[in-house]
Amino acid sequence: MKFSINRSSFLKTFADVSRAISSKTTIPVLTGLKLVATTAGLTLTGSDADISIEATIPEDSEDNTLTIQEPGAIILPARFFGEIVKRLPEDNMTVTIEDLQATITSGASEFTINGLDAATYPQLPEISSDRSLTLKADTFRQIIGQTVIAVSTQESRPILTGVHISIQNGTLVAVATDSHRLAQRSIDLEGVTTDADFIIPGRSLTELGRMLTDDVTETELRIADNQVLFTIGQTSFYSRLLDGNYPDTTRLIPTTSNTRIEFSAPALLAAINRASLMSHEGRNNVVRLNIEVGAGQVTLFGNSPEIGNVEEQLSFNALEGEDLEISFNPDYMKVALQGLGQSTIEVAFTAPLRPFTLVPSEDKEHYIQLITPVRTF
Known about the structure:
Radius of gyration: 25 Å
Shape: elongated
Strand order of the largest sheet: 14-11-12-13-26-25-24-18-22
Main location: cytoplasm
Pfam family, one: DNA_pol3_beta_2
Keywords: Cytoplasm, DNA replication, DNA-binding, DNA-directed DNA polymerase, Nucleotidyltransferase, Transferase
Subunit structure: Forms a ring-shaped head-to-tail homodimer around DNA.
CATH superfamily of the largest domain: DNA Polymerase III, subunit A, domain 2
Family: Belongs to the beta sliding clamp family.
Number of helices: 6
Oligomer: single chain
Helix content: 10-25%
Structural class: alpha+beta
């Protein structure tokens, strides 16, 4: 096996594939990068058993100056190989494989490292196109960013570490909850007849979102029983799916409210940041919101018995309903507001100990976040 390639082009593809390579895996071969050179191009594969990424650099592309002198395949230690390539002195490099040993040359530098037989690498699953659909990359990246913020990081309930995606009657609904907060985003899909229901690990979606850069226009999604495949240009992103039934979250979302306030999301976020300076110093990371409808006042309190307290009158666009005093985790609120971006938002409350909702004022039907308050008495 022998090939030459532009180093920058190789590193760009290697960076995508290495997202799936873990140094902590219990399967030694998965700490490696699989390289396969054919007449069509050079294919890089990385996997940690949960996520697998395969990317092909075509030989006929002028950007990468790839030349395949001799086909072949090998597994090289990913971390070490990557560090070598980053430090090579010239723009181009040549990799030659003989007897499971790789020689990497660039300018006056030459490295030799040992590899493994490519036949020992696990086979990627075959996923047919029977259940597939195409999604706009920027829209799907937004869906990921607005839902993974609420996935659980606790392995005690593995099902909650994923995002539940349901596609029915031309509508995609993505929802995540860690039992303290919830984020749900939906979009209408034109011309889609495929129905699907699956739970994908939050980590998988986070890594996928990083690959959906501005220069990517769309991604194809294919679904199998326990795997999902996203195709982005010359790159295939595989993820295992979580087994089990996701809890019915529709009953968690209140359908009525007693108090509603409209805020500017950036202004509220700045106020929560200030209040949390004190709450983070206390034993209980809690801030309190006091709503006085008759007086037209909304006050935010942060308190640390050891340090001091903060009190701030919040500005708002609209206020209606009943007086209320409610406490909540400011970190949950900050993450929720960051997901809502620069929009004007409506916050709706039902009772001091009932979950409250946040929705963008201009698109209430397609995105909602829910936060459970904290009992402080």
